[in-house]
Design a protein that fits this description.
Elements lengths: L5 H40 L4 H30 L11 H13 L14
Length: about 120
């Protein structure tokens, strides 16, 4: 496998920047949608109370954003019922992951410790 050339790295950097912009856009669009829903529900419950709905929607948006940022990885792994593979069970898999870690120049493989059932 040949190492990346200059043009491939430029392409990867462009893709990273595009991904960052799209992520920010998605984050903001989610907030706008929640604000609109909050406003309409606030108006439906109490005429003239749309701004209270926006306030509640903003608090909910901030809580959801914090939870997804702080605990998103563990939430997804729990939903997928993922578990750490012991080396005795699949030594070939552990070897492949270790080789990929070395090839990618990563200091350690990511691990998640699960409580024993």
């Amino acid at each position: 496998m040949k190492p990346y050339g200059m043009w491939e790295l430029i392409e990867v950097n462009k893709r990273i920047e595009v991904n960052k912009r799209r992520t920010l856009l998605l984050f903001l669009l989610m907030g706008v949608c929640l604000w609109a829903l909050g406003f309409f529900f606030g108006e439906a419950i109490t005429p003239g109370g749309g701004w209270w709905g926006v306030l509640v929607a903003t608090v909910g948006w901030l809580i959801m954003s914090w939870v997804s940022y702080a605990h998103g990885d563990s939430l997804l792994l729990n939903i997928a019922d993922a578990w750490e593979v012991p080396p005795e069970l699949h030594p070939q898999l552990i070897n492949i992951v270790e080789e990929m870690r070395i090839a990618a120049a990563v200091s350690s493989a990511p691990t998640h410790r699960w409580p024993s059932a």
